Amino acid sequence: MTKLMQWLFGASLLGGLWALVSFDLLDLNLPHTYREVAWPMPLYLLVSFGCFSLATVGYRVATFNDCDAAAKELQEQIREAREDLRRRGLKM
Amino acid sequence: MASRKTTQPKRDTEDKYSILLPTYNERENLPLIVWLLVKYLGESGFNYEIIVIDDGSPDGTLEVAEQLQKIYGGDKILLRPREKKLGLGTAYIHGMKHATGNFIIIMDADLSHHPKFIPEFIQKQKEGNYDVVSGTRYRGDGGVYGWDLRRKLISRGANFLTQVLLRPGASDLTGSFRLYKKSALESLVERCVSKGYVFQMEMIVRARQLNFTIGEVPISFVDRVYGESKLGGNEIVSFAKGLLMLFATT
């Protein structure tokens, strides 16, 4: 099953459940409060997921390591390498 | 075999690592990356070879590579040039044909990937007998140097989106610093059709499809010391296309 199919499957399952409760498709005479809670649920989920995504990406950008030490080490090694290679007869 | 083992008791004499270096206009960087590879792999006593695949660079990369071969020997530096610039996937296929190692290491020749991590890759591979070991900028001590906020934001955003849509089981999908079992890389390369960033992503996604095991090692990515690094609208669009393609087909 492709990822697209997995998503469609999941979405239709949740959507079906949501419609079932929101519109009382099976005539279960669910309490009115159930329907009131279920009705705006997709929007709530979407907004929460959006917030979660923004927070996650923001946190990860803020904590993205800057490898200054690695860059400095590389610069030193480049100098060392140039010297050594010249000694071995490399014409750059 | 037994006698060989007794002469080198500490090392697995069967393991050999072939490093593939696809190059295009890297005459400045190639000697430096080779020097670093020899330093870190030679010191650790690993059995290795460096395969330079130059795609007809007009700047004379191949001529520098020939000099390096004279310095370090034809058993350590192998030159497998091609006439003109062709895709990265075909460079790997081309390089692998001539590789004598049972492990293949792929990395960029522009010094953004540091050879000091290779012994860690090898260690990691042995720990879990992984089919693939991938360097990751996004975990542990991993990171980047030389990226501004915009670049970091795009990178993290794209990575998050990919993780959500594809759940690939690896944290760094677009990096290209990896170690593969040769047999694993062979079966992956023949399945992968994408180009650019998406190619590396497809390799990991297909690896998961084939139930290959993936280990990860945090790496520091030092953005191109020489030359320009670009991340424009074109790259972003082709990345998005590739992501959707993988989303719909894998």
From TrEMBL, chain A:
The keyword ATP-binding does not apply. Keywords: Coiled coil, Endoplasmic reticulum, Membrane, Transmembrane, Transmembrane helix. It comes from the Eukaryota. The keyword Cytoplasm does not apply. It is a multi-pass membrane protein. Pathway: Protein modification; protein glycosylation. InterPro entries: DPM3. Residues 64-91 form a coiled coil. One of its GO terms (cellular component) is endoplasmic reticulum membrane. It is found in: Endoplasmic reticulum membrane. GO terms for biological process: muscle structure development. The chain crosses the membrane at residues 43-62. Belongs to the DPM3 family. Component of the dolichol-phosphate mannose (DPM) synthase complex. Stabilizer subunit of the dolichol-phosphate mannose (DPM) synthase complex; tethers catalytic subunit to the ER. This is Dolichol-phosphate mannosyltransferase subunit 3. The gene is DPM3.
UniProtKB/TrEMBL annotation, chain B:
The keyword Metal-binding applies. It comes from Oryzias latipes (Japanese rice fish). Gene3D superfamilies: Spore Coat Polysaccharide Biosynthesis Protein SpsA, Chain A (3.90.550.10). Component of the dolichol-phosphate mannose (DPM) synthase complex. CDD domains: DPM1_like. It catalyses: a di-trans,poly-cis-dolichyl phosphate + GDP-alpha-D-mannose = a di-trans,poly-cis-dolichyl beta-D-mannosyl phosphate + GDP. GO terms for biological process: dolichol-linked oligosaccharide biosynthetic process; GPI anchor biosynthetic process; muscle structure development; protein O-linked glycosylation via mannose. Its EC number is 2.4.1.83. Belongs to the glycosyltransferase 2 family. Residues 18-187 form the Glycosyltransferase 2-like domain. GO terms for cellular component: endoplasmic reticulum membrane. GO terms for molecular function: dolichyl-phosphate beta-D-mannosyltransferase activity; metal ion binding. Pathway: Protein modification; protein glycosylation. Transfers mannose from GDP-mannose to dolichol monophosphate to form dolichol phosphate mannose (Dol-P-Man) which is the mannosyl donor in pathways leading to N-glycosylation, glycosyl phosphatidylinositol membrane anchoring, and O-mannosylation of proteins; catalytic subunit of the dolichol-phosphate mannose (DPM) synthase complex. This is Dolichol-phosphate mannosyltransferase subunit 1.
